[in-house]
Amino acid sequence: MEATAPTLSRKAQIDQTATALFRTRGFAATSMRELAEALGLEAGSLYSHIKSKQELLHRICFRLADDFFAGFAAATHDAAEPAAVQLRRAIESHVRVLTQDVAASAVFLHEWRHLSEPARTEFLALRERYEAGFRLLIQRGIEQNDLRTPDVAFATLTLLASLNWLPSWYKPDGKLPPSEIAHRLADQLLLGLANS
Amino acid sequence: MEATAPTLSRKAQIDQTATALFRTRGFAATSMRELAEALGLEAGSLYSHIKSKQELLHRICFRLADDFFAGFAAATHDAAEPAAVQLRRAIESHVRVLTQDVAASAVFLHEWRHLSEPARTEFLALRERYEAGFRLLIQRGIEQNDLRTPDVAFATLTLLASLNWLPSWYKPDGKLPPSEIAHRLADQLLLGLANS
DNA sequence: CCTACCGATCGGTAGG
DNA sequence: CCTACCGATCGGTAGG
C-alpha cells in the first residue's frame, strides 16, 4: 500500500541522497561511506547499483541539462511570438526547472567542475549553447525594438546569473509559488529597479 | 634587482597560490601536496608558515569580507546623498572588490561552506549583515521615490546575485575596465532591459 | 547487500 | 625547509 511515500527504485534513492549530500557538503567532500550510511547500507554495497562516484555526478548534471533544454525549446516553440515574449517564457521555464529540484540544480550549477573529462568539456559546451539561446532572444528583442542594452553578451550573463542564484535561497515550502517567483524575476530583470 | 615581480613574503605567496588552487579545483579537492608542489617545496614544509589548511581558507574568506564592508562604508558615507545614489556607489564598490582579486572572490563566494565552526556561522552572520546594508538602501530609495519593487528582500538577493556571478566570467585582461563593468551592471539592474 | 580487504592518498608532525 | 613518517580515510573490488 505505502500510501504517501513514492516508491523509488534503489538507484533513484541513491541518486536523490547523493544529490542532497553533494549539494550541502560538495562533491569532493562527500564520501561514499557517508552516502551509504545515509541510505542505511554499507559502502561496498553501493557498487552493485552504480559504477562509480563520478557516474552519480554525471547523471545529476546531464539530467538537469536535458531539462533546461527541453524547457527552453517549449518556451520558444512559437516562432510567431515577439522575442521579448519568448524571453519571458524562457525565464519562467528556467525558474521552473530550478525550483522543481533545487538540490539537483545547485549541484548542476556548482559541482560540474568535478566532472572528469570528457564529460566536463561536453558539459561546458552544452551550457554555452544554452546561453547562446538566451543571447539570440535578447538580440532579436532589440531588433524588434522591445529590448535595449549596450552589450547583449553582458546582459545575457547578468540575466542568467540573477536566475541561477535562486537555488541558494529558495525554499520549496516558502510562501511564494514558483510561478510568482518567475514572474517577479522576469519583471525585475526586464523593467529594472528604477522608478520610471 | 627583481625589477617587475613584487617580492611577496612566503606566507603571502602561499595564500596567493592556495587561493588560485581553491578557486579552480575547490577547497576539498585541493591537497596540501598540490599546494606545496605549486610553490616548489615539500608538503611538510608548508606547516612552518601556516597552522592548517583550514587557516588558509579562513584568511581568504575573512579578508574579502573586510574589503566588502570597508567599500560599503565608504560608498554610503555621505548621509546627505539620496539612497539611490548611495546604492549605485555601493554596487560600484562591490564590483571593485570583486575585480580586484577575482580568485579570492570566487573562493569567498563558493568555498565558505568548508569553513569549520565557529568560523562558518560567523561568516554567514557577516554576509547577512552586508546584505542588510543593501536592503536598507533599496528600502530608503523606495521611500524617497527613486526606486520601486514589490519585494525589497527579493530585489536585494537578485541584485547581489547578478553582481556575484562576475568572478565566473571576468578576465582581468578583458577590454572592459572594472569601472565600466560596474557602470553597466548598475545601469542594467536599475533600469532593466525593457525599452521605455 | 555484507565482510573483509586493496593500494593510494590525505592532513599533519617529529626531529633535524 | 627536508626526510621520514603517523593514523585515518579515501574510492573501489573480490567473493560470497
From TrEMBL, chains A, B:
GO terms for molecular function: DNA-binding transcription factor activity; transcription cis-regulatory region binding. InterPro entries: Homeodomain-like_sf, HTH-type_TetR-like_transc_reg, HTH_TetR, KstR2_TetR_C, Tet_transcr_reg_TetR-rel_C_sf. Residues 8-68 form the HTH tetR-type domain. It holds the Pfam family TetR_C_24. Keywords: DNA-binding, Repressor, Transcription, Transcription regulation. Residues 31-50 bind DNA. Signal peptide: none annotated. It comes from the Bacteria. Coiled coil: none annotated. This is TetR/AcrR family transcriptional regulator. It comes from Hymenobacter qilianensis.
